[in-house]
Design goal:
178 residues, alpha/beta, Alpha/beta knot, seven-stranded parallel β-sheet, 6 helices, 7 strands
Length: 178
């Protein structure tokens, strides 16, 4: 096997890749402390052609040195907005027709492998603070909750890793079917 060069990859994009259209999927970052995690969210959003990111509360916003370090240009290709309050951001998305799911270990959550992503409605995924997770206030207004099953002793994933796992599964279902 031979790896593709950056020039070859750019040619694929310029050729009008039909799967490159933005997905009606929004990422909501609820008081994420690490700007490096925020930058990783931008990079993942770009890789999977996500519609936008909503940065809430204490979550850093571009241009921020650590976001730019991990985003590697994705802050220029992914739409984003800031909301001081996560609950208000969630309610605005719901009013606009989005189904909003928290990504959290919670009573009544669906395990990621059991989730069937509805293809008809746009959706948003809420990822929480590295220590306290999705806020209780946000949990009270979301439409559902998805959980990444874990089998180790820590029962915790870095938000950037968790975001990549969950977004891939949602994108896989939306682009290729369940």
């Amino acid at each position: 096997m031979k790896k593709r060069t950056l020039k070859e990859l750019q040619l694929l994009r310029e050729a009008g890749n039909p799967t490159a259209a933005k997905l009606p999927l929004v990422l909501v970052l609820d008081n994420v402390r690490s700007a490096l995690n925020t930058g990783s969210a931008f990079r993942t959003a770009d890789a999977f052609a996500i519609e936008k990111i909503v940065l809430c509360g204490i979550t850093a916003t571009p241009p921020h040195r650590e976001i730019l370090k991990t985003a590697i240009g994705a802050t220029e290709t992914v739409a984003w907005e800031y909301a001081a309050d996560t609950v208000s951001a969630i309610r605005a998305l719901q009013t606009a027709g989005y189904r909003v799911w928290a990504v959290e270990q919670a009573e009544g959550s669906q395990l990621l492998q059991d989730v069937v992503v509805p293809s008809a409605a746009p959706m948003a995924l809420v990822f929480g603070n590295e220590v306290s997770g999705v806020s209780d206030e946000a949990m009270a207004v979301v439409d559902g909750c998805v959980e990444v099953p874990q089998f180790g002793t820590k029962h915790s994933l870095n938000i950037a890793v968790c975001l990549g796992v969950v977004v891939w599964e949602v994108v896989r279902q939306l682009r290729f079917g369940s």
